[in-house]
Amino acid sequence: MSAAIDGELCPKEEEELAQHLAECPECRAEFQDAKKTKIIIRERIVRVKAPSALVESITRLTSITF
């Protein structure tokens, strides 16, 4: 379900999920709860920008060639 909530399903998978949710009240309720949870997390998450020195260090370490 998380893939569906994140928009990661292909059209065929989306259709299959929609059909299932139309027929299964338990899964439909679980899907709605998961969507609500995602919205709450997105609204309350605190994003912090990494210090430039950290970004530079990671970039330097990951661009080493052998």
Average pLDDT figure: 93
How many helical stretches?
4
**What global shape is seen?**
elongated
Q: Identify low-pLDDT runs.
A: none
Query: Tally of extended strands?
Result: 0
Class computed from helices, strands and strand pairing: mainly alpha
Taking the alpha carbons of the first and last residues, their distance comes to 41 Å
Computed Rg: 19 Å
User: What is the helix fraction of residues, given as a range?
Assistant: over 70%
Strand content: under 5%
Largest sheet: none
Q: SSE order in H/E notation?
A: HHHH
Count of folded domains: 1
Task: Lay out the secondary structure.
Blueprint: H1 2-5, H2 11-23, H3 25-44, H4 52-62
Task: Report on this structure.
- It is a single chain.
- This protein has 66 residues and is mainly alpha-helical.
- The protein has one domain (2-62).
- Helices cover 73% and strands 0% of the residues.
- It has four helices and no strands.
- It has helices spanning 2-5, 11-23, 25-44, 52-62.
- Helix 2 (11-23) packs across helix 3 (25-44).
- The mean pLDDT is 93.
